[in-house]
């Protein structure tokens, strides 16, 4: 029996991992008897083959030696315990979780939801509803009771005993819509919770749905109208505010002011200027009254209707009133519903955030239940509610010896049986922090569903490497890549930067590789306008310092003159290469990027050795390569590498 559900899941994951290696065949090479398999090498080789052939072609034998070097570095990283560091574990676990996420999404369901959302996006519907509340985390008896109540209301409406509107006012727990006879007005996709939205779109106009379950309770939905979607509109407005409960004199003054502004608009005074000057909506006034584009059910009803009544940009409404005051709206732009591919990315994001995103996850969960022969035992689950004490709901229940009494199974999955005691273990783990239901029955069923989902998804997560080779390759690649970076930072990159003595010694021993070619000592001056260019040429001939000239002209236009000073090594500067061999002041006959170019050539510096400071970046790179080569040599001495040549010869035919 599993005494701790969460610990059991973690234990199962840990114990399952070694089976992955046991199922592989074809050991390509070993490092101290630790196997590296041919399929892993092939996966990496094929993935990088095209890029490698373009940048630095390697034969299979050369690539094998590179792969051995790579694995030696990873082996050393593990030997040094880098895979036990919390920083590594956190980074790797985050990577793996992101790689695993797509395996818990049913793409068929996801694509269907996205297409469904777009089709609904094309229409607005007007519907009303009657809602009866369900308790939080209801048990089967609660659910059945409320369902029967709302079914009775539906039958009474259909038989003519009561109208829908009367029933809404009498029975609906949504008091906002009940006052309107249940009428919710027009709405579109994503405005309502998904099950309600589905009922509204799927119910024919004029008809009443069957009871619909949402997280709020059970609903009856009556569909009144359907129309082409309005899309979005972008407008500017001017508002003269009216406080709540304002007296008639205040309303009169506000109305008088808005009509005075209206007369100015009709006299062709700019709408944006009037908004900045007079609008009481200060957040939009500073932008000339502009509001962000909006669709239906964003603004108050009166404002929405007036905004969507405009069809021609720059036209405007007459003054009208909302609960906030008096307004005038000017149309900026209408936005029709976009084409599917244009809307796809936004729809996918909304589907994932919306409750319907869980349908994909639930589809995966259902497939796993079928794949692993899931079975649950409701009677045994309900028996737990009778065994628990009311103190549990107050976080005060501490049972004893329940594992001996509660032995019956609550569900079986993948050949394992989970007992009543296992579910109680799970509930006790969550007892303190969990929001409690109203009854023990609801609490047991809530925890049961959570326990089943947690275990099944964790079980599947633990088997991803075994079931999906591509996932295993990618996870291994990420894990080894993180370890490689850390060990290279320790043994090569960081060491080269910190070991200043070793860097200088390396530089002194290899000075012959760090030499200057012949260099030109020169200053390149680029001038934007022809008039300035003539003045600059006169100043240069008078030997006026270049910086003095540039400072003078750049006071007016900072980009008038740019200056670039040498020395320039041949082949490193296009302009210097063109004038190579000349001396003195030279004005190039052709402009460069529309600018006149002067080159003031002072002389040439013969070839000679570089100082460390002049080539530090290159020396550091070479020193890192040197350290890596020495380090790899020591690793090949430290660890025994054995290549299984017959396996390599076999896979070479596939490369």
TrEMBL record:
Specify the domain of life of the species encoding this protein.
Bacteria
Q: Where is the signal peptide?
A: 1-21
Under the heading Gene3D superfamilies, the entry gives: 3.10.50.40
Extract the GO molecular function terms from the UniProt entry. peptidyl-prolyl cis-trans isomerase activity
User: Keywords for this entry?
Assistant: Isomerase, Rotamase, Signal
Keyword Signal among UniProt keywords: yes
**Which Pfam families does the annotation name?**
Rotamase
Annotated PpiC domain residues: 122-225, 230-333
Instruction: Note the PANTHER family from the entry.
Output: PEPTIDYL-PROLYL CIS-TRANS ISOMERASE HP_0175-RELATED (PTHR47245:SF2), PEPTIDYLPROLYL ISOMERASE (PTHR47245)
Q: What is this protein called?
A: Peptidyl-prolyl cis-trans isomerase SurA
- Organism, by scientific name, is Schleiferia thermophila
Q: Give the classification, highest ranks.
A: Bacteria, Pseudomonadati, Bacteroidota, Flavobacteriia, Flavobacteriales
């Amino acid at each position: 029996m599993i005494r701790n559900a969460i610990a059991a899941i973690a234990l199962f994951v840990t114990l399952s991992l070694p089976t992955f290696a046991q199922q592989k065949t074809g050991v390509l090479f070993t490092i101290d008897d630790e196997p590296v398999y041919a399929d892993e090498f092939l996966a990496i080789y094929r993935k990088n083959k095209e890029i490698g052939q373009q940048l630095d072609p390697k034969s299979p034998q050369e690539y094998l030696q590179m792969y051995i070097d790579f694995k030696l570095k990873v082996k050393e990283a593990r030997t040094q315990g880098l895979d036990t560091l919390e920083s590594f574990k956190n980074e790797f676990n985050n990577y793996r979780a992101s790689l695993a996420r797509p395996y818990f999404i049913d793409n068929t369901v996801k694509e269907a939801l996205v297409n469904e959302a777009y089709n609904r996006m094309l229409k607005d519907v007007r519907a009303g509803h009657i809602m009866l509340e369900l308790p939080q985390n209801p048990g089967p008896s609660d659910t059945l009771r409320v369902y029967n109540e709302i079914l009775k209301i539906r039958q009474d409406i259909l038989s003519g005993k009561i109208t829908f509107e009367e029933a809404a006012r009498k029975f609906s727990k949504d008091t906002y819509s009940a006052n309107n006879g249940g009428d919710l007005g027009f709405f579109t996709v994503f405005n309502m919770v998904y099950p309600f939205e589905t009922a509204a779109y799927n119910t024919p106009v004029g008809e009443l749905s069957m009871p619909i379950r949402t997280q709020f309770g059970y609903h009856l939905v009556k569909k009144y109208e359907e129309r082409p979607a309005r899309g979005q509109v972008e407008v500017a407005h001017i508002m003269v505010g009216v406080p709540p409960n304002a007296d008639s004199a205040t309303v009169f003054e506000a109305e008088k002011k808005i009509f005075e502004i209206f007369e100015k608009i009709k006299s062709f005074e700019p709408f944006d200027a009037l908004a900045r000057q007079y609008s009481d909506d200060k957040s939009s006034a500073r932008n000339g009254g502009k509001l962000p584009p909006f669709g239906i059910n964003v603004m108050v009803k009166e404002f929405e209707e007036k905004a969507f009544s405009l069809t021609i940009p720059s036209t405007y409404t007459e003054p009208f009133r909302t609960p906030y005051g008096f307004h005038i709206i000017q149309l900026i732009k209408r936005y029709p519903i976009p084409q599917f591919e244009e809307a796809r990315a936004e729809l996918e994001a909304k589907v994932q955030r919306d409750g319907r995103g869980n349908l994909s996850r639930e589809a995966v969960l259902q497939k796993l239940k079928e794949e692993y022969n899931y079975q649950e035992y409701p009677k045994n689950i309900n028996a737990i509610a009778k065994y628990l004490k009311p103190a549990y709901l107050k976080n005060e229940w501490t049972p004893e010896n329940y594992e001996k009494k509660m032995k019956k199974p609550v569900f079986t999955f993948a050949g394992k049986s989970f007992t009543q005691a296992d579910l109680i273990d799970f509930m006790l783990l969550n007892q303190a922090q969990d929001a409690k239901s109203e009854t023990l029955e609801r609490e047991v069923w809530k925890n049961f569903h959570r326990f089943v989902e947690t275990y099944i998804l964790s079980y599947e997560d633990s088997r991803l490497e075994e079931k999906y080779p591509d996932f295993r390759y990618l996870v291994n690649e990420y894990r080894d890549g993180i370890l490689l970076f850390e060990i290279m930072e320790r043994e090569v990159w960081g060491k080269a930067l910190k070991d200043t003595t070793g860097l200088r010694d390396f530089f002194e021993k290899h000075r012959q590789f760090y030499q200057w070619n012949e260099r030109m000592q020169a200053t390149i001056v680029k001038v934007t306008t022809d008039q300035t260019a003539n003045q600059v040429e006169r100043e240069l001939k008078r030997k006026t310092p270049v910086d003095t000239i540039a400072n003078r002209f750049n006071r007016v236009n900072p980009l008038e003159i740019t200056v670039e000073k040498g020395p320039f090594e041949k082949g490193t500067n296009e302009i210097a290469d063109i004038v190579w061999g000349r001396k003195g002041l030279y004005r190039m006959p052709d402009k460069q990027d529309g600018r006149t170019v002067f080159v003031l050539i002072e002389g040439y510096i013969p070839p000679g050795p570089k100082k460390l400071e002049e080539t530090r970046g290159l020396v550091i790179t070479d020193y890192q390569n040197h350290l890596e080569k020495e380090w790899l040599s020591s690793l090949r001495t430290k660890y025994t590498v054995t290549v299984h040549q017959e396996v390599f010869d076999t896979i070479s035919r596939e490369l």
